[in-house]
Design brief:
Structural class: mainly alpha
Distance between the termini: 63 Å
Oligomer: single chain
Largest sheet: none
Radius of gyration: 18 Å
Length: 110
């Protein structure tokens, strides 16, 4: 009985994750595209601190992509797949930290 319930709940979680992963990725791509467009417009208008604004948008997009990677972990079926996803998560975290540092340094220059 408990085993059946556990399996049922795992199937529900997997189904929700499979739906949410592309949605979270889509939001991340949308944020990335909007940030890039905003960066080009700001650059064309010669606005100051374009790099900081762009880095902030890129960091936000990476946060969404990191969220999608974490959801992928829910669906991992073996240790190899989990290891690959873990490396991806670490890369996303490092990129986000670097972008946050760039934003911080840019704000300090203001």
């Amino acid at each position: 009985m408990l085993e059946t319930l556990t399996h049922f709940l795992q199937e529900i979680v997997a189904g929700v994750a499979e739906v949410c992963i592309p949605l979270v990725q889509l939001v991340g791509v949308a944020v990335l595209m909007l940030s890039a467009i905003r960066g080009v417009i700001d650059y064309a208008q010669r606005k100051p601190h374009v790099g900081v604004t762009l880095a902030h948008g890129l960091a936000l997009a990476l946060e969404f992509m990191l969220g999608a990677e974490v959801l992928h972990i829910v669906l991992a079926h073996d240790w190899k797949e989990l290891g690959v996803l873990g490396v991806g998560v670490i890369i996303h975290i490092l990129m986000t930290l670097l972008l946050h540092q760039e934003v911080k340094e840019g704000k300090e220059k203001e």
